[in-house]
Specification:
It is built from nine helices and ten strands. By secondary structure, it is an alpha/beta fold.
C-alpha cells in the first residue's frame, strides 16, 4: 500500500497559510545559491512556486564561492529576512561545515547549522532538518513509534544521523538501528524491523525480500535514472508493506515543512 503523503503535505501547507495570515506581515525566505547542480536549481524553482502559493516572499541570491559565508552572515542581521536556505550540494572544494555554521541559527529553517543539529542530542528541536522531520511526521501519522524497531539505512548528517536522534527522542521512544555501506547482513536487520527508512541514494536499493510483511517503509531517495525520478525502494515492496511513493512522498512533506519553519521563525522574530 502506498502512504498518502500528499494529504500530509497539504495539511501542513494549509496551517502554514493560516499562520501567515495571522502574522500581520509577509514573512520572507532567502535561498542562497552557489551551484549549477540541476536538482538544486529545480528545488529552488519549486520553492518559488510554493512560496507564492503560501503568501511568503522569496528571493534567490546567486553568489560566488568567495561571497557565500559573508552573505549568510549579513542575512543574519537583515530584519526583512526570516528564513535562510542554502542550496546544496556544494562543489567539493567547499568547507561545508564552515558554510553551514554561517547560516544564522534563528533563521536556519532547514536545520543545517551544527548548532541546531547539536540540539537534537538534547531532545530539542527548534529547526530539525526538514527531511528527517518529514520522515518523523509521516511515521507519526501511520503508527505509534514507541518501542518500534526502526532501521535507518544511511548515516549522513543531512538525513540518517539526525533522523536516528529524532526517533530516539524521549516520548517517541523508537528503538533505532543505523546502517551504512559497511553494515554486515543488512537484509537480516531490515527484515526484522517494523519500520525501515532508506536514505542511500541508489535506485530501487531496498527489495521486497529485505522487508517484513506489514512493515512501514519510508523512501527518502531521489535518483534520476534515464531522466526519470526513482526512489531507493523497489516498487514491489509496496505489495507487502506501507511505502511512501517517489515522487510525491517525503520530498513534498520536506518542502511543506521548510515553509512551516519560515513562519515559525517569523513568529519568533516578531516576539
Ligand atoms: P549520502 O550520500 O550523504 O549518504 C548515503 C548513505 O547511504 C551513507 O551513509 C552510505 O554509507 C549509505 N550507503 C551507501 N551504499 C550503501 C549500501 N550498499 N548499503 C547500506 N548503506 C549504504 O546521501 P544523503 O543522506 O544526503 O541522501 C540519501 C538520498 O536521499 C539521496 O538519494 C538524496 O538525493 C535523497 N535526499 C532526499 C531528500 C528529500 O527531501 N526527499 C533530502 C535529502 C536527500 P557510508 O556512510 O558508509 O558511505
Amino acid at each position: 500500500m502506498w502512504i498518502d503523503c500528499r494529504t500530509i503535505a497539504r495539511s501542513i501547507e494549509e496551517r502554514t497559510k493560516e499562520r501567515v495570515e495571522k502574522l500581520g506581515f509577509t514573512p520572507k525566505l532567502v535561498s542562497v545559491a552557489c551551484t549549477d547542480d540541476p536538482s538544486a536549481l529545480s528545488y529552488l524553482k519549486s520553492q518559488r512556486k510554493k512560496a507564492e502559493k503560501l503568501g511568503i516572499a522569496f528571493e534567490i541570491l546567486n553568489v560566488s564561492p568567495e561571497e557565500i559565508v559573508s552573505t549568510l552572515k549579513k542575512l543574519g542581521s537583515d530584519e526583512s529576512v526570516n528564513g535562510v536556505f542554502v542550496a546544496r550540494p556544494f562543489p567539493p572544494s567547499f568547507d561545508e561545515k564552515e558554510i553551514l555554521s554561517s547560516v544564522p541559527v534563528e533563521k536556519d529553517v532547514e536545520g543545517v547549522n551544527p548548532a541546531n543539529l547539536g540540539l537534537l542530542l538534547y531532545d530539542e528541536e527548534i529547526f530539525p532538518p526538514c527531511t528527517a522531520e518529514a520522515a518523523v511526521r509521516i511515521l507519526e501519522r501511520e503508527t505509534n513509534l514507541s518501542g518500534k524497531r526502526v532501521t535507518v539505512v544511511g548515516r549522513s548528517v543531512t538525513v540518517g544521523k539526525p533522523l536516528a536522534l529524532m526517533l530516539l527522542k524521549k516520548g517517541r521512544d523508537a528503538t533505532v538501528t543505523v546502517c551504512h555501506s559497511r553494515t554486515v547482513n543488512l537484509e537480516e536487520i531490515t527484515k526484522n524491523s517494523d519500520i525501515v527508512v532508506v536514505a542511500v541514494g541508489r535506485a530501487h536499493f531496498l527489495k521486497k525480500n529485505m522487508v517484513k510483511e506489514g512493515a512501514i517503509v519510508i523512501d527518502v531517495g531521489i535518483n534520476y535514472v534515464d531522466g526519470k525520478l526513482q526512489g531507493d525502494v523497489d516498487p514491489s515492496v509496496e505489495e507487502i508493506a506501507r511505502v511512501t511513493p517517489v515522487p510525491g512522498g517525503v520530498g513534498q512533506v520536506t518542502t511543506a515543512l521548510l515553509f512551516e519553519h519560515v513562519v515559525r521563525a517569523a513568529e519568533r522574530q516578531r516576539k
